[in-house]
Amino acid sequence: MLLSVKHSKLLSQKLRDACSNIANERYTWKLLGAIYQNKLNTTMSENDDSDSHLGAINRLYTKSGEIRHNQVVLDWLESNASELLPDLPTKVGYFSGKVSWENTFHTLCNQKVKKIISTMDPDAPSREGAPLHEIDAEDQSRLVKHMFHLVRAGQVDKAQQLCIESGQCWRAAVIEGWRLYHDPNAHDLSRDRDSVEGNITRALWKNCCWDFCNSSGVSTEEKALYGALSGNLQAILPACTNFHDVLWAHFKTLLDQEVEEELCDSMLPHSYWKDLLSLESVIDTMGKMKQSRDLYNKLQLQLICGNLSGILQTVSEHIEKAGLSQCRFLCHLLLILETIYPDQAPAALHDTLTKYILALQNEECMEEVVFYASLLPSELQISLLSEVLAHVEDLSRPQCVQYAAVYSVPIEEVSMRIYKKIVSESCSSPDPGMTSVANISDGDARVVGAISWLLLSETQRRSALREANRLIRMFLGARKHAPACAVFEMIPSDTIEVIHREWSKENQGIPLPPDDINAVREYLCLQAYLDTHQAYSDWSAHRANRPSNPTCNLEATTTFSEKVAFEEKKKSFEISIQRWEQNLTVQTQLTRDKMLNVLLFIDGGWLVDEIKGTDCLREEQLKSLRRQYIPSTTSLLVDVLRQSEQDQAVVELCDYIASEQYQLYNLFNQNELRELLEKVYDSSIKCGCNPLQFGTED
Known about the structure:
Blueprint: H1 2-6, H2 13-40, H3 53-63, H4 65-82, H5 102-109, H6 124-128, H7 134-152, H8 156-165, H9 169-175, H10 202-213, H11 220-230, H12 233-236, H13 243-263, H14 279-287, H15 295-305, H16 308-318, H17 324-340, H18 346-362, H19 366-373, H20 378-389, H21 397-406, H22 411-428, H23 442-450, H24 461-477, H25 481-490, H26 495-506, H27 514-544, H28 560-599, H29 616-643, H30 647-658, H31 670-686
């Protein structure tokens, strides 16, 4: 059906081109399969010890790999042609009633005066120089054309059967003359005699065919018909209509010459030996044709002659302008050739796969993208997939992870590469300002979103936690609390549990590595601070949202209803202010507790590693954040306590700062200490303590 579509004139040129590409690709795969199967087929048939022509050629095919290769190519060309036979005219009965030239015969029987042959023997047209009846001549021409197409498809037996059905048994007998002679009874006269095969005077028959092809008044197809059976290349070529027809004509002649060279028959015409062919000369001749520039034709010629370097060069030349279908074909071709010829086609294969993967990306065929990327070397597949998958939408990413697991692609390394690339590009590009929601700039939003690439697989949760900590440190160092909170919210709440579970799967009974222990502790420290920041923001917002006292100027003209309404507003205000004060007390206590949780963080202090690490840059960042946020958190806590009239708590806080257990005083500079002591002094006065008698006995 595909071949019929290919030749339909009613379809658009684009569709015909697509069908032609599919057909040519199929032909190329058939050729490669046939050639490779021939190379693998090391089991030869037993030697034929008969002294007939057929026995000699059988022995030639057994010992010569070159002639077997040429026969494989010829069989391939004829097989392709046989698929086109259904496209020929459906009428195959060219004469009715098994009577040849029926119109000529009817004219002669009725003694009608007409300039046609006077006898009905097969040689009458050439002997008398007179034509057949015009209808018979047309049928004769179509019959010969059909016979040539059958011979072109390697179906000589069907061509003979067609002659018999058309009443031209003599023509079927003429075609029989090309067969090799073989007498199965030559060495065993005791048994029942079998029929003799072939033509013992085959060389004489070929001589006649050559003379016939040189005759005038013979159609092109009839010359090509007998030329194909007698090794006459010049007689075949005029009937060839396409590249594969010409290639078939050359291989048909080449094989005929190789057979005759083995038989060494001197009765062949001298012109037969004038232009002997070889595989190299055939390929060279075909390469000069304009049609050889076509991708498929060029590759087929290179496959026939085994020119691997030429195939690689052809692929490199066509890959940039190849469409999706041709790109897929070239990828598969190189994959097969790499299997057959290991270590000889890696560069071209990698370039072709890369081009095809990028083309598949445009078609959003993500499973195919991951599959073909898995065929690349590890570093190249990671680099390419990180470039391709970076543009995948959030909803499609889990599916890509599943594909990666199926095709054994290291998705963890790919996602880490994508994450680092996004962060690097966002941090290096100028930030236009706060253009995104929640006071987060576009650049910071991209950085925050990048962490999602590390959350696709639970096996990568350790890396995700370390990178999330790093981003939060970076944002807090720049006093960007909004993006820091956004990063923290990206981390699933079960992260610590998942990290321990995934580690225990392969390391039962072994504690987490020191870096992961420190990362978990850092995560908890950052969580404590971000909770503190949120609590302070909530406290500030609640305190600023104090209900306003209703006002009303009561005058003599004020009506009774207005007075009642004012009293109701006043009662509502008292209830609201009472509720507000209760909530403020709760919020103040919550804020105080969270701030103290940061200042007095357990097991060494806030952002202090449990185990000495090896990352010097990280240690410097942690120290910097402690020096930055411990004093500021202390100052905020003092403000909260003083505004809540908890001056005694301010004095007690000073004890924590001065404690040798926590040594928080080391994180304050002189100005920060002076400011803190001034506030503590004021609170001491308010709560009735004499700061000047601090430390003296009563």
